[in-house]
Design goal:
The chain has about 210 residues and is an alpha/beta fold. It is globular, with a radius of gyration of 17 Å. Strands 4-5-6-7-8-9-10 form a 7-stranded mixed β-sheet. It has a 3-stranded parallel β-sheet with strand order 1-2-3. It is built from 8 helices and 10 strands. The chain folds into 2 domains: about 80 residues, 4-Layer Sandwich (Metallo-beta-lactamase, Chain A), CATH 3.60.15.10; about 130 residues, Rossmann fold, CATH 3.40.50. About 35% of the residues lie in helices and about 20% in strands. Pfam families: Lactamase_B_2 (PF12706). This is Metallo-beta-lactamase family protein. It comes from human gut metagenome.
């Protein structure tokens, strides 16, 4: 099946085309599925299943728990349990790390966390003020610095593998995201590739696999 986080086009614009070739069931928050169904985001024959945030559901061999994130449309992340008792969480499109997000990220074997923008690039870039303000707001996105601080906290709790995701094409680069994270970790004595693994997920190419 396919887990959908929210309705924004950069997350669902290829969904309908994909489903016409691979008619898989689609899971997500009720508001998101209603939007997709009403606006042609999925084929009419698509099987849609709403997930209740905070409640774990069985999807195939996986246990999947959706949790709400702070964004400007209804949006969720996912905490996924595998049959061999491993856990991963993906959390993107969140302007602030709420208690629900903190809980979902804790105790994971792999965390995929948004590292959307470099603050200097955003404030000096081409975006109009209202859009910059939206991105920086509690209903926007996480910066590299905010992501780095959370990764350090998770490493100190025992998590070792991380994927930096949802990097902005206009306000970030993979190198900047990694440099920010490595600088924060380095000040705490954490050595990447020894104490943890951190990689960026690229927008337009297949990223290296992360086993966990």
């Amino acid at each position: 099946g396919i887990l959908v986080t929210h309705e924004h086009s950069d997350h669902v614009k290829g969904l309908s085309t994909f489903l016409k070739k691979y008619p898989l069931p689609v899971y997500g928050a009720e508001e998101t599925l209603e939007f997709l169904d009403a606006n042609g985001g999925v084929p009419a024959s698509c099987e849609l299943t709403a997930l209740t945030p905070g409640r774990e559901e069985d999807i195939g061999v996986f246990g999947v728990k959706a949790f709400p994130t702070s964004h400007d449309v209804p949006c969720v992340g996912y905490r996924i349990h595998t049959p061999d008792e491993k856990t991963m969480t993906i959390a993107t499109d969140l302007g602030v790390l709420t208690p629900a997000v903190h809980e979902a990220l804790s105790g994971c074997d792999l965390v995929a966390l948004e590292s959307n923008y470099d603050l200097h690039m955003l404030r000096s870039g081409p975006y109009p003020y209202y859009l910059r303000a939206r991105i920086e707001s509690v209903r926007g996105h996480l910066s590299n610095d905010e992501c780095a601080a959370k990764l350090l906290e998770l490493i100190q709790e025992g998590c070792k593998k991380f994927a930096l995701c949802h990097l902005s094409q206009e306000n970030n680069t993979p190198m900047l995201a990694l440099q920010t994270v490595f600088s924060t970790l380095g000040t705490a004595g954490v050595v990447p590739d020894k104490d943890c693994i951190v990689q960026t997920q690229r927008r337009n190419e297949v990223s290296p696999a992360l086993a966990f």
